[in-house]
Amino acid sequence: MRKIYLYITLIFSLLALFSTAAPRLTVVAVVDGMTAENLSLLRPYWQQGGLRTLSEEAFQTTVSYPHLVYGGNETTATLMTGATPNRHGYSMDAYFLRRDRKNHDMLEDETTHGIGTPLHLSPKALLSQTITDRMRLQYPAAKIYAVGITPETTVLLAGHAANACCWIDPENQQWVATAAYSEGLTAAAYEQNKSGRITTLAARLWTPRMDMLTYSSPTPQEQKKGFSYTAGDVLLHAPEANTLVIELALAIQQTEKLGLDATPDLMMLQLNTISPAAQTDQIASAEQEDMYLRLNQDLGFLMEQLDRRIGHANYQILVVGRPILGISAAALSDIHMPVQSFNADRAAALTGTYLMALYGHERWVDGAYGQSVYLNRTLIEQKRLNLETIQRQVANFLMDFEGVQIAMPGYEASRYPILGATLSKRHTGDVVFMLQPGWRLMQDEKQIEDRVIDDNPVSPLLFWTGTLRPMPQGKMDATDIVDLIFK
Predict the structure, then answer these.
(1) Are residues 426 and 284 in the same domain?
(2) Predicted confidence (pLDDT) per residue in 83-99, tens digit
(3) Per residue in 341-387, pLDDT tens?
(4) Taking Cα atoms as reference points, which of 153, 166, 170, 191 lies closest to residue 115?
(5) What whole-number distance in Å separates Cα of residue 287 and Cα of residue 275?
(6) Close Cβ partners of 9 (under 8 Å, ≥ 6 residues apart)
(7) In terms of domains, do 370 and 225 share one?
(8) Which helix (H) or strand (E) holds 387?
(9) 299 and 344: one domain?
(10) Is residue 17 part of a domain?
(11) In terms of Cα–Cα distance, which of 136, 160, 131, 159 is closest to 479?
């Protein structure tokens, strides 16, 4: 009896050991615009495929964001670092530089160069460790790659520690990269460029894969004429972009032998569900539905190939959506919640006029970006004026603007949790403000920075793993995903 007990104990110990061993390959896919509502709506269409498998076998939940969401890569940075913008430093896609009074891309880095692209990008602006950094620290020999559709998102997915990252250049129809990573343009990407793979897919005609009556949400125009695009004309928002990402990811896996040794490896992917005519993340057209149907097919192909090459139990895949367009202004108007716009540049100009009336005809305001107004500190010092006094005056002035919920000196932002979590210390202006619900922030008359018209956007998360591990209960915070992967 004692021997039987020892055998049983040994068996369960071995099972526990194998069930908690790190998978050989982790795939993290961030899907632009994917929502839980859309996944639920389209589930009946998925007789098979990656999203079908994940919906049946994966741990599923939704994640919310503890900071303001603008529809840019601030959400990507939060998902990848497990930190909020005040810690990881990426509060918006651009920042205002006092030195030249211009807006600059957040990942702009003139000390590095692009490979096949004029863009100078690096992850230096990202202050917190990312998923890739954690993997590199835990497994120094890990092979880590990122493949994406757009440059900034791909670099954020790559973090500081990837071997390389690649993204699509839609004009030249090539894979391009940044020299910020040791391997530059991967061999697999070079081979696809040489063979003209992107050009081949870009020549495809994208038309409905089903009869228009089969789709649940066709527009009146689509009901009459369907939809038709040459993929290359809308490449970053065509299903072919997802296909290209999956193909290159699998080519890299094969070339670099990811998941084939005892050291865990990591593949980071950017995918997309935002179609060319989309005005909202919620499905409102047949072409948006078609994006999901084709994404399901591409994810299914990815999982089938990994099953064959690595083994079903030797990899894990986490798929998470991120808000891009949010709820459309038209949809909110239909329920009698009109959306109004607040122009930050116009507010800065009026603030400058106000300060001229108080202190004389000088340039008192350097500019505005996002939810910050930047005062001309050099002039204030030259005039020997009290900066804090002027900050208070400007904050009180902004409070009179329609749409402004609260305004304060920048150093007081931390007193308000959501605003304090949203703003990065390096880029916070002298005076900051927060808009009322239903107002969206505009810059330069045209560019809407606050594209997500949703006070509390959430993202769907699906996590399939061959290992046995406890999963959290209920909804998650976006800052918890890093720990979920490395738990």
Answers:
(1) no
(2) 999 999 999 999 999 88
(3) 888 899 999 999 999 999 999 999 999 998 999 999 999 999 999 99
(4) 166
(5) 6
(6) none
(7) no
(8) helix 387-398
(9) no
(10) no
(11) 131
